[in-house]
Specification:
The structure holds two protein chains of two kinds. Chain A is of the alpha/beta class. Chain A has six helices and 13 strands. The N and C termini of chain A lie far apart (58 Å). The chains are: A alpha/beta, B alpha/beta. β12 of chain A pairs antiparallel with β8 of chain B, so a sheet runs across the interface.
Chain lengths: 249, 309
């Protein structure tokens, strides 16, 4: 079966972001960018499904500026077969992303769509679910285990009280949680091979999707600063401070 | 304005998260209706009707909603939402699963993890793992929001007497079925609602050592949490994880034991009122946010602490 994986270029997860002095947004100039960690897990899962003989072809799609080609090439080096970049310089809301992905789903007809559960920049956790609604596909969100069995997929999900398993009829959508797998590193020969794999370019207009934004970003501020407190010498002093100064125990 | 709040529950009792979500609805202002969708959940509807400030409770009691699967809940919420200006659910794994689905069916965007209501169409939410707070104004006809429960103080669970009305709509979606679940059992308070949280990290070395934290927690009436490192190493189950990808907590006292304090962990606990860090590495970033820091071996500190409190 064909698997479609959506990946996003985001700020590297180790970078401490800075808010612009005019409070218009966070400052992303000269900041290290990378593939969103949850998307990496989605790519890894697709590659494992291919290695098991479940998946026959892996198509990677990204939506964003031209530089997002780097993240698609990374996915190709990890084992995806071909890439598709929907090029746009605009900052997109989840619904627009879901509409663009729906257009790709209609064209590619994948049996399984893998996405990360959230991106670490906007922290929305929406796109997979929205794509489910638009395509009518069932959704296995926050997946920590994916087992394809004929025309069904069983997805074990990480929920607040523990784990829950749902059975979905394919085609289906799965969004990945951190514990689904441990992504591999791309080897140098695979990185070289990835350069020859096909990477098509398209645009939102080509896909017939209107880019209507409904959310206006008014301002971005740093969170209330927390000052470092004091170091205590021993446990007795700690207990004394908690009881008599902070009065929390 | 009229607001629909979707209740968080387990078919037997109304979860505290619902009370925080209703508080956010109050901050918006307007009539507040609560939807209780489940199976055999009359008691939950009664509890919701007793919450102060609730105008009406909509009860969708049907076997198809027994496990509140995202697909059927999405259908139901989208069907009912049409008469409302705002639709709110708690930012739990249940709310995060069905609400974006409902929003897309309504052809509107949504805002996740709202921590502040600025105006009826303007809301603030953390982005970049809580390292920035963004304020958005939305022009969507129906404002769809998940509410970060730690951002709003719970409303009183009593004092109201709303009418309960049955909902006729039943989703016919059948491509997703519930197979089973494995829920962690605990007598300790719920992590997201506890007033004291004690979390262990990689420094705990193994799962057995968490017994020390459980003993201390029981003495303090606290909940136990963990860092991602402790979960990934298999010390504790994943539902204890505090952080960007786990649970967000803001207790009165947070005690971080053997946790270095990575950005992703801080995202889940830095709004706690008092933070205590116990770590033998003096340079650990957790000390930069801790009100009280103790540089010492946790294996000496925890038993002593248990004796003294």
């Amino acid at each position: 079966m064909k698997v479609l994986v959506a990946v996003k270029r985001v700020i590297d997860y180790n970078v401490k972001v800075r808010v612009k002095p005019d409070n218009s947004d966070v400052d992303l100039t000269n900041v290290k960018m990378a593939m969103n960690p949850f998307c990496e897990i989605a790519v890894e899962e697709a590659v494992r499904l291919k290695e098991k003989g479940v998946a026959s072809e892996i198509v990677v799609v990204s939506i964003g500026p031209k530089t997002s080609q780097e993240q698609i090439r990374t996915a190709l080096a990890l084992g995806a077969d071909r890439g598709l970049l929907i090029e746009t310089d605009e900052k997109l809301e989840s619904l627009t992303v879901a509409k663009l992905l729906k257009a790709v789903v209609e064209k590619e007809q994948p049996q399984l769509v893998l996405l990360g559960k959230q991106t670490i920049d906007s922290d929305n956790n929406q796109t997979g679910q929205m794509l489910g609604a638009l395509t009518g596909m069932p959704q296995g969100t926050f997946a920590s285990e994916v087992v394809v069995d004929g025309d069904k997929v069983n997805v074990t999900r990480e929920v607040d009280g523990g784990l829950r398993t749902v059975g979905l009829t394919l085609p289906a959508i799965v969004t990945t949680d951190l514990r689904l797998n441990e992504p591999r590193y791309a080897s140098l020969p695979n990185i070289m091979k990835a350069k020859r794999k096909p990477l098509d370019m398209t645009s939102p207009a080509d896909l017939g999707v209107a880019m209507a934004a409904t959310q206006t970003l008014l301002k971005v501020v740093p969170p209330a600063e927390r000052q470092a407190g004091i170091k205590v010498a021993d446990v007795a002093e700690l207990v004394d401070k908690l009881k008599n100064e902070a009065k929390v125990i | 304005m009229s607001i629909l709040v979707i209740a968080e529950h387990d078919n037997a009792s109304l979860k505290g998260a619902t009370l925080n979500t209703i508080a956010a609805a109050k901050a918006i202002g307007g009539d507040i209706d609560v939807l209780v969708a489940g199976a055999g959940c009359q008691a939950v509807a009664d509890a919701a009707a007793a919450v102060a400030g609730v105008s009406k409770v909509l009860l969708a009691d049907n076997a198809v909603y027994a496990h509140q699967l995202g697909e059927v809940m999405g259908d139901l919420v989208a069907e009912l939402a049409k008469g409302y200006s705002h639709v709110l659910a708690a930012a739990t794994t249940t709310g995060k699963d069905f609400l974006p689905r409902a929003a897309a069916l309504l052809d509107v965007n949504m805002l996740s993890d709202v921590v502040e209501v600025v105006a009826a169409d303007t809301f603030s939410r953390p982005i970049y793992a809580g390292n920035a707070i963004a304020t958005y104004q939305t022009s969507d006809a129906i404002k769809v929001l998940t509410i970060r429960t730690t951002g709003f103080d719970a409303v009183e669970a009593t004092g109201g007497s709303a009418a309960v009305e049955a909902v006729g709509f039943v989703s016919g979606y059948d491509k997703a079925v519930f197979v089973g679940e494995e829920l962690a059992k605990s007598d300790r308070p719920e992590l997201t609602a506890a007033n004291i949280v004690i979390s262990g990290g990689r420094g705990m070395q193994n799962g057995d050592n968490f017994a020390m934290l459980y003993n201390l927690a029981d003495k303090l009436g606290a909940a136990v949490g963990a860092s991602r490192a402790a979960v990934d190493a298999g010390f504790v189950p994943n539902d204890l994880q505090v952080g960007q990808t786990g649970k967000i907590v803001a207790p009165g006292l947070y005690i971080a034991v053997g946790i270095s304090g990575a950005i992703q962990h801080l995202a889940g606990m830095k709004d706690s009122k008092v933070i205590v860090a116990i770590n033998k590495d003096e340079e650990a970033p957790i000390f930069q946010v801790a009100d009280y820091g103790l540089v010492a071996d946790l294996f000496d500190v925890i038993p002593e602490l248990e004796k003294l409190v």
